[in-house]
Write a structure and sequence with these properties.
Layout: E1 3-9, H1 14-32, E2 35-39, E3 42-47, E4 50-56, E5 60-67, H2 75-90
Antiparallel strand pairs: 1-5, 2-3, 3-4, 4-5
């Protein structure tokens, strides 16, 4: 299964970064019917075809995901959209 692994530094407080990831997760739930759950400072998410985690560090956001067979051909597009959203919120 193809995987995505993206790290993005940030200069926000831990609480601000956590809140931003929570906002993004709320949009993901609405738009893509993704379920998510916080496990300490890591948001685990999944839906058919994809599962992953968004870890909130003191100076870095780490997104990791595994794509199922049906979403594998869209890996580049999905990765590009994740990078765009990270740049939008954490640049």
């Amino acid at each position: 299964m193809p995987s995505i692994d993206i790290r993005r530094p940030h200069r926000l407080s831990h609480a601000e970064a956590h809140a931003l990831v929570d906002q993004v997760a709320a949009r993901m739930r609405q738009k893509f019917d993704i379920t998510s759950e916080w496990q300490n400072d890591t948001l685990a998410f999944e839906r058919p075809g994809i599962s992953g985690k968004i870890a909130v560090g003191s100076d870095e956001i780490h997104v990791s995901a595994r794509l199922g067979m049906l979403l594998s051909p869209l890996k580049g597009m999905i990765e590009q959209e994740i990078r765009r959203k990270l740049d939008e919120h954490f640049a």
